[in-house]
Write a structure and sequence with these properties.
Blueprint lengths: L2 E3 L6 E3 L3 E5 L4 H14 L8 E5 L11 H14 L3 E5 L16 H14 L2 E5 L13 H5 L3 E7 L5 E9 L7 E4 L3 E2 L6 E3 L1
Parallel strand pairs: 3-4, 3-5, 5-6
Antiparallel strand pairs: 1-2, 7-8, 8-9, 10-11
Helix pairs in contact: 2-3
């Protein structure tokens, strides 16, 4: 099995099938991100990633028991060990993110993670005023790890810091993103 040690962190990653639940970007945008990832690692393409694009209406509503069952089945069919959901507000079924009712969105995700043994990355945007966590404590309470990814302006450098850690300490780290598109903007020239 493929393993990679993340530089200067002591963490090891393990390759596994990934399910990307796209609720927020165009299909082209997701594929450009995956292309950037592949080129940045000198790979011809990213393999093992299944992208599911949900229309905005009705989308994926985690307050709906049928949607919870459907997501769980999809993860099992793909055999996903990693599930990326972009983004939290789009799966909330209209629940106000500042309401304790966000527990009805978060706890089904914890149930699915437990029943499928998959790791979830759920993207949630920060408060624009201060760049910090926003929303109900029910969101934070359901998480094992809350990471804040922050970059200044258009800088390719982002700082990643843990704001909540349930099981083990996570040191802060810095990541750098580079990708240059050709003149037409559709193909990535290099990353």
């Amino acid at each position: 099995a493929y393993q990679q040690r993340i530089k200067n962190t002591g963490f090891t990653t393990h390759q596994c099938p990934t399910l990307w639940v796209n609720m927020d970007m165009s299909e082209r945008g997701v594929h450009q991100r995956l292309q950037t990832l592949a080129k940045g690692h000198n790979l011809p393409k990213v393999e093992g990633v299944s992208v599911v694009n949900f229309p905005s209406n009705p989308g994926l509503d985690m307050t709906n028991p049928d949607a919870v069952v459907a997501l769980e089945r999809l993860i099992q069919e793909v055999g996903a060990g990693l599930v990326v959901i972009d983004n939290l507000v789009t799966i909330s079924g209209g629940v106000d993110e500042n309401s304790a009712a966000m527990g009805s969105v978060m706890y089904p995700l914890r149930h699915i993670a437990s029943s499928t043994d998959a790791t979830f990355i759920v993207i949630h945007l920060v408060n624009k005023a201060n760049g910090e966590y926003r929303g109900s404590t029910a969101i934070n309470g359901a998480l094992d790890l809350l990471l804040n990814v922050k970059r200044e302006g258009n800088s390719p450098i982002a700082k990643v810091s843990a704001h909540k850690v349930r099981n083990m300490p996570v040191p802060p780290l810095t990541v750098e993103f580079h990708g240059v598109h050709n003149l037409g903007g559709r193909e990535l020239e290099h990353a």
